[in-house]
Amino acid sequence: MNPSDIAKQLGRRGGLATKARGADYAEIGRKGAATRWYCAMGSIIYFKTPLYDLVEQGRKTTTLRKWTTVKPDQPVTLMCGRRHQNAMVESVESLDLQQFDDELVKSEGFTTKDELIKVLDGFYPGQTRFFLIRFHTV
Fold first, then answer.
1. How far apart are CA 70 and CA 87, in angstroms?
2. CATH number of 3-137
3. What are the structural domain ranges in the chain?
4. What is the pTM of this model?
5. How many degrees, rounded to 5, is the angle at CA 30 between CA 41 and CA 53?
6. Of the residues 54, 74, 113, 135, which has the maximum number of CB atoms within 10 A of its CB?
7. CA distances from 132 to 38, 58, 62, 81 (A)
8. What is the separation, in whole angstroms, between the first and last Cα of the chain?
């Protein structure tokens, strides 16, 4: 799936998922199911399926969020439904849209800045300042 397809699939109301947040566990499974997966890692960063696919392929090594509670050198769990993997946060920095460069666009799994901005606008309409979270899976 190419970045243009991801932008189309996520659409205007896609959302990168809910915000990164600390949690003791994450509810998975069907609604009402008592199945729980204990999150020993602490914080969870949620992704929509098309973006999580890029993480699994190794094409996405950063995530842009409106806010965050994670810190550098913190272990986190990357989640998408039942799928999950552990990661380590390398850095967290605050960026404006004007500071986006080709390296950032590539680390987000996109080919052009316009595609990235279109997807971000679907998640966070009107937002111009973001937290850039760099991570690597472990």
1. 12
2. 2.30.130.30
3. 3-137
4. 0.72
5. 55
6. 135
7. 26, 17, 7, 23
8. 24
